[in-house]
Amino acid sequence: MITFKELGISTRLAQIVNEIGFSHPTTIQEKAIPVLLGKNDIIAESETGSGKTLAFLLPIIDSIDPEKHVVQALIVAPTRELALQITSEAEKLLTSLPELKVLAVYGGQDVLQQLKRLEGANHIVIATPGRLLDHVRRETILLNQVSTLVLDEADQMLHMGFLQEVEQVIKETPAERQTVLFSATMPEDIRKLATTYMNTPISVNVKQRNVTLDEIEQIVISTTDRSKQEALKKVIKSEQPFLGIIFCRTKRRVNKLHEALKEKGYLVDALHGDLSQAKREEVMATFREAKIQYLIATDVAARGLDVEGVTHVFNYDIPQDLDSYIHRIGRTGRAGGTGRAFTFVAPKDRNYLAMLEKGINQQLERRIVK
């Protein structure tokens, strides 16, 4: 398999990516990164969960000049949630590159606090269209030296009625910029946008490997918040996993479940963002060696975590977006093996379940444990 370094990413950045846990690029990364490093415009048709965020972040980070205290890259996203998700990915990559600064700009933030942060150098700005234009009008963000403009989930932006704002943003950037357009679908409005504002874009179309992950049996356990822990124990008892990962929404819930299962004699440990790097490595080593049987984790463990022999994934707390669901259940059924994924759904989670089923275009089997 090809490595990030072989795609042309700098040695330092390739090393950072590996340390975070991404050993090999996904298909969209493999196709898009060399095109972006070549400073070409690109139209990439790629679904959520395909690894598109890293596909544009890595070439951007490699191209930033830390000595120039201006906005050099602008990433526009349709929602605050996506802007924050991209910012989180960028911050992980920049932990070892403190000279590069990233800023998220979105509605709902304290404007004065945002203005204060804008006084410093910000090389990369990740923004929603409305709030970004507010700052452009105030002249608190200048886009006249942007060399790379990314429009992420462009179809969703247009669907939400942001076409006019997106065009205004584009006009604020230099004509000779690199324009990067990522979209799950390519409606006519997107094609018009590309024709008007892009310079001989290269098209990359990645139909993700079956998003339903055929090698993984997916089952919904109908339960309540109060009886969820007992339901989990019953499923574990009947399934007898070799190795299992149990996902919780927050660090607090990870710790609470960890203590409860440990008290009952389960071979279990916890993995989340508050642990030191040394502790995280220690936990992962004991799990890989099957000295513990269950790893209870937040989504920090979902990305890039590849452990041979994981037979089961348990979504103790339902994921709140399709991307997280695909990454979580993808921890099992790896390397041609089969796996089983159980998602525990309380009545308040029904909307999330409906969203996930729509995303994978499949109705999942329901079970009630007794």
From TrEMBL:
A motif (Q motif) lies at residues 2-30. CDD domains: DEADc, SF2_C_DEAD. One of its GO terms (molecular function) is ATP binding. Residues 2-30 form the DEAD-box RNA helicase Q domain. SUPFAM superfamilies: P-loop containing nucleoside triphosphate hydrolases (SSF52540). InterPro entries: DEAD/DEAH_box_helicase_dom, DEAD/DEAH_RhlB, DEAD_box_RNA_helicases, Helicase_ATP-bd, Helicase_C-like, P-loop_NTPase, RNA_helicase_DEAD_Q_motif. Keywords: ATP-binding, Helicase, Hydrolase, Nucleotide-binding. This is RNA helicase. The lineage of its organism: Bacteria, Bacillati, Bacillota, Bacilli, Bacillales.
